[in-house]
Amino acid sequence: MRALILATALCIPTFVFAAGSEDPTPPKPTQTTTECKSGMVWDEKTKSCVAPQESQLDDDVLYQAAREFAYAGQYDHSQAALRAMSDQNDDRVLTYMGFTTRKMGDVPAGMAYYNAALQVNPDNILARSYMGQAFVEAGQLGAAREQLKEIQARGGRESWSETSLKKAIETGDGYSY
User: Fold this and answer.
1) Quick one: 110 and 176 in the same domain?
2) d(C-alpha 162, C-alpha 155), whole Å
3) What is the pLDDT of residue 25?
4) Of 86, 108, 128, which residue is a domain's last?
5) What is the pTM of this model?
6) Distances in whole angstroms, Cα of residue 88 to Cα of each of 39, 55, 84, 144
7) What is the CA radius of gyration of the chain?
8) Could you tell me which residues the TPR repeats occupy (predicted)?
9) Residue 114 and residue 73 share a domain
């Protein structure tokens, strides 16, 4: 039985979770985007919607809210949740600030955030994937391929970051989360 489990595990692609920032699936909608309004975040303890900057929510809850907002296309609300996180130099914050800023149309500022995230954590393969997707959107396929090589060299083979960037290079389309 152990041999079967090991053989199965070796055949199934694995996903790398870099700095807690890589999740291969879109976030599931929670009360944050289904019940709360105007960028409020669901507080499980109080069972109510709270303003991210005025709440006692921990950084992981705020990060998940930021990710959920970004996936829902609510980039300004995502940024508000990110700005409420305690460490503004956290590479997760910088990566999603880059993503949301780029999606809001300011590509140079988005790239600056990605570069800042990579200064903090050169192994942040999610930042590399989003940066590569920005290069694809700008028609800079060589630069996108360089980021793909970096992802692979930094342990990101068969990760969401690698797969999404490969697909973006092939199709010319990026992802919204």
Assistant:
1) yes
2) 10
3) 76
4) 86
5) 0.83
6) 19, 16, 9, 26
7) 17
8) 91-124
9) no
How much is the pLDDT for 4?
35
Please report, for the domain that includes residue 151, its CATH number: 1.25.40.10
Closest CA to 160 of 26, 2, 8: 26
In the beta sheet, which residues pair with residue 48? 43
42-58: buried (b, 16+ CB within 10 Å) or exposed (e) per residue? Answer: bbeeeeebbebeebebe
First to last CA, the chain: 38
- Read off the tokens for 162: 């690698």
Q: What SS3 class is residue 138?
A: coil
Q: Which two tokens stand for residue 77?
A: 């609300």
CA-CA distance, 9 to 11, in Å (whole number)?
5
Tell me the pLDDT of the chain (177 aa) as tens digits.
333 333 333 333 333 333 334 566 788 999 999 999 999 999 999 999 999 998 899 999 999 999 999 999 999 999 999 999 999 999 999 999 999 999 999 999 999 999 999 999 999 999 999 999 999 999 999 999 999 999 999 999 999 999 999 999 999 887 665
Both 47 and 102 in one domain: the answer is no
- Render 24-51 in DSSP notation, one character per residue: SSPPPP-HHHHT--TT-EEETTTTEEE-
DSSP character at residue 17: -
User: Which structural domain, as residue segments, surrounds residue 61?
Assistant: 27-86
